[in-house]
Amino acid sequence: MNGAHDPDAYFSRRFAPLVKAATVRIHAARDGYPHGGQPEPPLWGSGFFVAPNWVLTCAHVALEGEGGEVGVSFEGGSARGRVEWAEPAVRTAGLLPAPDLALIRLLQPTAHPCCWLSPRTVRAHGGERVAYFGYTEIAGTVGAFDGRCTVRGEFGGDGLLRLGNEDEMPEGLSGGPLVDVERGEVIGVLKGRRGGARDGGLGIALAQLRRIGVPGTPIGREEDDPYHRVLHAHDRYHADRHADVSEARDTWTEAQSGLPASAATVAALTPKRRVVLHGLLAQLPPPAGTPALVALVDELLPRRGEGLSPAPRGWREGLEVYLDRLELRDAHSELEAVLRYAVYAATAEHPYPATAEAADAVWGWVRDLAMTELPPLARNRLGAEWQARVRARAIGRGRRTGEHAAAGPLPSVLLEITERAWEQGRFDWYLTASRPSGDLPLGEGRHGTALADLPAELAGPLSEAFRRSDEPGRPAVLEVALRQALLDLDVDTWRIPPGSRPIGELRPVVVRCADRPPGAPCGEGDGRDPGTGPQERWTRLHEDGMEHACVDCDEGRPEEVTADLLRELGARSFPVLCRVPGGDGGSAAIRRIIGSGHPVALWRRERMDPVCGEYHRGILRTVKSGTTAHRLPLAVRELRAGIGAAEPEAYWSRGITLLYDDPGRPLPGADDVLETP
């Protein structure tokens, strides 16, 4: 290139045609493409192809269609599409809350170009000069439109971008791409104007696409997870376009190769190397989950904080998180770091087996680059690490004897809710995720929130905590730490995010006690023989098998729950209450269960029928459905899901509550001395 690099001129010449060719207009579904004097259907908004036959747009645009179908028109064609994902999932009046994104799948295969999505995982946006593209209607004619502006910063914490008002933003552009002018990559989606034509606009950061839910069942193929289905197809598309030499045409990779080296995160990862690596990683199964991906990056480089939100989900984002941590400026060490990540990704635990061809292709690329670009010592290190990890994987597979053994304990998220001692009726909260290396703080609320307002305040933080913790088929357990007076709080009925099914139907929700009395674990500190300790009970319930004892009811007759009765329960038995805590002595019974040190108990918040026979039979079926207490959180989730599905056989369990309080995992701050505020 001659002379100084002019980002705007270079973008207009190389990238703008690529973006325009991939930008679409969205309207009502129809048959065929208008010819001659046929009128264009009314324009709902814009969108853009992100992978073969996949369009990304705003939810408020995609949800205009009836029955989930829309029409998509683009250069050279028109097709029907189906909305496969949208968040929010329902259109309401006014500005939709974040992320306001949707994915549309074309119902018939169509040839078309795709945009290049930024893999960057920047913690904040601001200062980028961006171009926006879409369609608008002028004097009754729908036509393409584009403009330029700057990202002024973020609005709130949900990935909304404040855009400047340098150029006009007419109606119809919502859903179109926001493209970084200097880097030549899509960084977001245009949401619309902020207030008026002179007040700039709003965009949505591309990272919010990671809010697509983790599948609730194990995945056995790429198509089972919509996020990886689309992003892997995107990466393979661009790798194939780069490798195709059958005809002369410009590609995103070629255009990015003409940018200054300063546009790259790591100089050793050139645009051509990056597109090839992304394509190879996209032929592997995805990571086993966000926790596994974060653990892999931590293994490569020690963790230096996890403030990134939304959490990374795929190989391309994991690579960028890893590269962001590097403090190398030597070309050889940078390249070795990139190749090492590829080795780890190819030899990681996957949700389903990688094909030998896919893994070999990654190693072949690593080996060839190492042979030509790295010194002998670095080549030997990579080869030894590849062989060691392949052997470790083979040994690990041989040791696993079944699905249960491979699954291990469920991941968990802990939510502590505490009433302010100096402000009755106002509550603070603290959120952490369980990690093998220690609990990870994820947020706190110290605003003194009213109880009724907690679900709305916690919707965002809890959603992000679940994204960081869920694995396909293994949704994280939500542990809710409450003081005894609040143990009947119906957190399992909260809808996170708003509009979704109750949280207790989607994942296990259990309670833990945040104010167990000090002193002897049994007998409520009365000086008597404490009996079996909580840790021994927990261990026996989880290793030797479990039994239950209905301690407040004998064939329909109320029974007093005494400390002696609770002390005499066998170590493999846990107490069950038939009566509702709000009456008939139920609250006192729960206090005695907590005071006795029992770490596991079951009760219900409401009573469906004065006859309790069905409740007793249902509890028996639930306990017998698993041999040890490991099964109880999942069994309770299944009961709540049955109620949500209106199954009459599950009605007896309405309001079911499970105390599941591992004494080997003290609550954070359990040993802290309370200080007067």
Describe it:
With 677 residues, this protein is an alpha+beta fold. The protein contains 18 helices and 23 strands. The longest helix has 24 residues, at 376-399.
Helical residue percent band: 25-40%
Low-confidence parts = 399-407, 519-528, 671-677
How many strands? 23
Q: Count of helices?
A: 18
Name the shape in a single word.
globular
Percent in strands: 15-25%
Radius of gyration: 28 Å
- Major sheet summary line: 6 strands, antiparallel, barrel
Q: Terminal Cα separation, in Å?
A: 65 Å
Main sheet strand line-up: 1-2-3-6-5-4
Brief overview:
By secondary structure, the chain is an alpha+beta fold. The strands form six sheets. It has a six-stranded antiparallel beta barrel with strand order 1-2-3-6-5-4. Strands 7-8-9-12-11-10 form a six-stranded antiparallel barrel.
